[in-house]
Amino acid sequence: MKYESLFSEGTLRNLSIQFHLECGYTSLTYYEYNPAKEHFQRAKELSGLDMNMIGALGKRTRFQQNFLAQLILDVKRKEDIPAPEPDSELTLSPTPLASLPKDHDLSDDTVLNQINLAEPGQYPMPDLSGEEQAVILGVCTDFQKNNPIHKLTEEELLAFTSVSPVSPCLVAFPLKCCECPQLRNLAPCLLNGTF
């Protein structure tokens, strides 16, 4: 690809990730799914993230008594890729926790806000930079656009969006819209969103 020569190896990695994400979203805008998938895959490779759908025991509803298998996204950083430098000029700075919207617990539904895992320490989430979180959201969007509307697809999208409470500097509104195909779930998501 012609643009690869613009980014030197390793020095502008975050800028290259941002470039591939923008190209992926632009391709999706014009319904060019194969180039979009290639750009999101390249951004994922550059970020050094390894994302796998796995099953873990957990509870999803308030009244559930037994732990059942739940689909979650296991995110790990590859060993040969260094962790991003937080003071880099090219990386997105995280939003301070005081500036983030509060998570309103409406307590009017049986579904919990997030899955209550039987062993939460078994699947630790690495501290993700803004670009790495954007890569997860990009892969989620690509997955959503390339799969039919189906209950199984919704479950897999829920696994992607469940990563967000651990990484609060993601923008809440687009992420919540990905997980809200039903109208009854829209009100809590809009209350938790930022505009």
Structural descriptors:
6 helices, alpha+beta, 195 residues, 3 strands, three-stranded antiparallel β-sheet, 37% helix
Count of helical regions: 6
Give the number of DSSP strands.
3
Q: What is the residue-averaged pLDDT?
A: 77
Strand percentage lies at 15-25%
H-E string: HHEEEHHHH
Oligomeric form:
single chain
| Anisotropy-based shape | globular
How many structural domains in the coordinates? 1
Q: Distance between termini?
A: 36 Å
Spatial strand sequence of the major β-sheet: 2-1-3
Question: What ranges have pLDDT less than 50 throughout 5 or more consecutive residues?
Answer: 165-175
Q: How much helix is in the residues?
A: 25-40%
InterPro entries: TTC27/Emw1
Keywords: Repeat, TPR repeat
Tell me what the structure shows:
- It is a single chain.
- By secondary structure, this protein is an alpha+beta fold.
- The protein has one domain (about 1-80, about 105-190).
- About 35% of the residues lie in helices and about 15% in strands.
- It is built from 6 helices and 3 strands.
- A 3-stranded antiparallel β-sheet has the order 2-1-3.
- Strand 1 and strand 2 (about 70-75) form a beta hairpin.
- Helix 1 (about 15-30) runs antiparallel to helix 2 and helix 2 runs antiparallel to helix 3.
Outline the secondary-structure elements.
Blueprint: H1 13-29, H2 33-47, E1 49-61, E2 68-77, E3 111-117, H3 130-145, H4 151-161, H5 172-178, H6 186-192
Antiparallel strand pairs: 1-2, 1-3
